[in-house]
Amino acid sequence: MTTAPSGSRLPGFYNLSLKERHALLARDGWLTAEEINALSGEAGLTSAQADHMIENVVGLHALPLGIALNFLVNDREVLVPMAIEEPSVVAGASFMAKLARAGGGFTAKTTPPEMIGQMQLLDVPDFDAARQALLDQKDRLLAEAAQIDPVLQRLGGGPRDIEVRLIDSSPIGSFLVLHLIYDVRDAMGANAVNTATERLAPLVEAISGGRVHLRILSNLADRRLASAKCTIPLTELAFEGYNAEEVRDGIIAAWAFAAVDPYRAATHNKGIMNGVDAVVIATGNDWRAIEAGAHAYAARGGRYTSLSTWGKDSAGNLTGSLEMPLAVGIVGGATKVHPTARAALKLMGVKTAAELAEIIVSVGLAQNLAALRALATEGIQRGHMSLHARQVAIAAGAQGEAIERLAQQLVAEKTVRIDRAEEILREWQER
Ligand code: MEV
After folding, report:
1. Is the CB of 371 under 6 A from ligand 1?
2. pTM of the prediction?
3. How far is CA 368 from CA 132, 254, 269, 309, in A?
4. CA separation (Å) from 412 to 41, 335, 379, 397?
5. Would the pLDDT of 336 be above 80?
6. Is 92 near ligand 1, meaning CB less than 6 Å away?
7. Sheet of strand 211-217: strand arrangement
8. Which residue from 105, 269, 372, 387 could staple onto 254, CB 3.0 to 4.6 Å apart?
C-alpha cells in the first residue's frame, strides 16, 4: 500500500544511511520497493538490456544518483532525482530550493512542445519561385506530414507550420532551408521529426524543383522553451558574516558579469547545466541535445550571454529567472527502457514532458543561485572541498567509516590532496 507523498522538505535526509533513505521514500509513498531497487542499482539497467540500446556493449557506466530536496514547483512538492559525479551540486540545489520556498517556490511554464525539422534544399532553379510554391502548398505539405505518425496525431501532436528561409551566403553559395514545425507532445521528438523530414522530402523536391540534402531536427529548440522564476526574500540571504543586502547585490553583480562577458557566461551557464543535466540524465533524456540547445540559445542575439537574469523587486528581495529550450520527453527511448529513469520520473510524479521541463528549469535556476551565492561571498572551494575530500579519501583507499574521518581531517588541515590522504592512511595503519 502506498500513501500520498508528503512534502519535499525531508529534514535530516542528509544524515541518514542509504538504507534509511530508501525506507523513508517507501514509508512516505514516494516509490515502491521495486522502484527503490531500480534507483539503488539492485534492479537498474542490466547489461543484457543495455546490449539492445547501443552497439558493442561491454558493460554499464554508473553515476551517483542523489535526491534534491525542498523543491516547490508551481505549488507542487517535488523530490528531484539528480545523476551527477560532482560534489556540492545536489546539496546546493536543495539549499537554494529551501531559500526559494520561503518566497513561494518556483513558478515555471513551457511553450508548446514544438520542434523544428530542417530540410536543406540544394540545386533550386529559382529561389523566389520555389519559396513561394512551398508556402502556397503549405496545407498540402502539412496534410502529408500529418499522415506520417497517426499515433502522435491522435495524441494531439503533429505538424503545425512550414517556414522557408533563404541562406544567401554560405561556403557553397545560396540555398533554401525548409523548417517543418512539429508538435511532439510528450516525446523528446528526434525520431518523430527525423522520420517526418525524411518522408516529406520527395514532395518538397517535387514542389520546389530542388534536391533535398539534409533532413534532421534542429537542437536549437527555440519554440520549445521552459522558463522559471523565483523570489528569495531578503531575510533569507544573510548568513555567517554576510548581511542580506551584501549577498543580494553580490549575486546581482555576479550575474551582470555573465550578462556581458562570454568568458564568464560560459562558466555561469555551466553552473546552470550542472542542475539541468543531472535531472536530464536521471530521467534517461538526451543531455547532449539539451546542452547544444542551451548554448545556441544563449548566443541567439549574436553574442553569447547568460541564460538567467537576477535583480531585485521593489521590496528589495532577490528575483531570478531562467529561460532555455528544453526538449525532454517522458515517452520513448531510454526514458521507457531504463528502469532507473522510469523510477526517477515516478519520483517526480510528472504526467507530461512539460511538467518535467518545468522542474528541470527550476533546478537550473536553483543551481545557478547556489553557485552565484557562494562565488559572491565565501567562494566555492570551502563547501566544495568538504565533499571533494570524501572522493579524495576513497581514491586514497579509505573504506567504511574511515572515509568520513579522513575527509574531515583533510579539510581541517586545508590540504585536500591524494598524497596527504595516503600519508594519513599509512599513519593510521602503522599505529
Ligand atoms: C562548477 O561546476 C560550476 C560553477 O563554476 C558555476 C559558476 O561559476 O557560476 C561554480
Report:
1. yes
2. 0.91
3. 45, 11, 8, 10
4. 33, 43, 17, 19
5. no
6. no
7. 158-167, 175-183, 114-122, 211-217
8. 372
pLDDT of residue 6: 67
C-alpha cell at 20: 534509511
Tell whether the torsion through CA atoms of 95, 72, 376 and 280 is positive or negative. positive
Q: What percentage of the chain exceeds 70 in pLDDT? A: 99
DSSP symbol at 377? T
pLDDT tens-digit series, residues 143-186: 999 999 999 999 999 999 999 999 999 999 999 999 999 999 99
Q: Are 338 and 257 in contact (CB under 8 A)?
A: no
236 is catalytic: no
Contact 407, 392 (CB under 8 A): yes
Query: Are the beta carbons of 360 and 276 closer than 8 angstroms?
Result: yes
Distance CA 219, CA 58 (A): 30
- Among positive and negative, which fits the CA dihedral 192, 180, 351, 90? positive
CA torsion angle 403 405 411 417 (round to 10): -40
**138 Cβ closer than 6 Å to some ligand 1 atom:** no
> How confident is the model over 75-117, as pLDDT tens digits?
999 999 999 999 899 999 999 999 999 999 999 999 999 999 9
Catalytic hit among 186, 286, 355, 358: 286
Q: Per-residue b/e over 22-49, b at no fewer than 16 CB within 10 Å?
A: beebeebebbeeebbbbbbeebbbeeee
The DSSP symbol for 13 reads: G
